[in-house]
Design goal:
Oligomer: homodimer
GO molecular function (chains A, B): DNA binding; DNA-binding transcription factor activity
Structural class of chain A: mainly alpha
Keywords (chains A, B): DNA-binding
CATH architecture of one domain in chain A: Orthogonal Bundle
Number of strands of chain A: 2
Protein name (chains A, B): DNA-binding transcriptional regulator, ArsR family
CATH superfamily of one domain in chain A: Winged helix-like DNA-binding domain superfamily/Winged helix DNA-binding domain
Pfam families (chains A, B): HTH_20
Distance between the termini of chain A: 63 Å
InterPro entries (chains A, B): ArsR-like_HTH, HTH_ArsR_DNA-bd_dom, WH-like_DNA-bd_sf, WH_DNA-bd_sf
Largest interface: A-B, 24 and 24 residues
Strand order of the largest sheet of chain A: 1-2
Chain lengths: ~110, ~110
DNA sequence: TTTATGTGCAATTATTTGGTTGCGCAATAG
DNA sequence: CTATTGCGCAACCAAATAATTGCACATAAA
């Protein structure tokens, strides 16, 4: 629980993915979140800490309660990478198209 | 290196993400892949194994060489989750719209 | 004020990870 | 046939992870 802290590592854990989906509905306190899971409040709290550290979540103190809410923008990090992947893949198919085109040209 | 095997865990590692991007260009052998990284062939091989187990990669034996190539379809697992996330988020904003609409109505 | 509640934090532990080294084996090259 | 090359696999290791337990400390309720 020390060094790695990026969105990809954050969503690697199924509980954290579930927390993210849960919080799309709105901000919740650690206790409220923990109720949705089998794990203890402290375990959930650690996940919240990790998610907060990589800026997927933001805390908002209200009296003695802390409301965790989504920073949806951060999820774009994943989308960005996926987009890059798709672009590269598209490029590859472009090259394939070029090859096919060459074959067609040679044939005649 | 035993049990967990899903796409999210697979892309959590930066080396594995790099391998995925690298293979968008086309199939490569473990040695060819390893040349692109600092880690040993065996280390890379382990990553390939993980990526293969979760079906992001597929092997194709050719003589004593093994060509690893992408199963791009598998990446949709990530996209699917992201899509679900965005849908839920959109729903939330719909509800916000409803609230704002109500406020507007009450005001007059 | 006293008690209960909501939460973070530290220490401990079991498990998983990512990596290295060394081996064996099949396919190819000489 | 012999040497080399390309790989996977097993054993081992350090570091990271996930979860528990036990506190401490505020804030809010009695």
């Amino acid at each position: 629980m020390e060094v790695r802290r990026d969105v990809f590592q954050a969503i690697a854990d199924p509980t954290r993915r579930a927390i993210i989906l849960l919080l799309t509905v709105g901000a919740l306190t650690p206790n409220a979140i923990a109720e949705h899971f089998d794990s203890s409040r402290q375990a959930v709290s650690k996940h919240l800490q990790i998610l907060t550290e990589c800026e997927i979540l933001k805390q908002e103190q209200q009296g003695r309660e802390i409301h965790y809410h989504l920073n949806a923008a951060k999820m774009q990090d994943i989308e960005k990478w996926l987009e890059q992947f798709k672009q590269l893949l598209a490029k590859r198919f472009d090259q394939l198209d070029v090859v096919l085109e060459q074959l067609k040209t040679k044939r005649k």
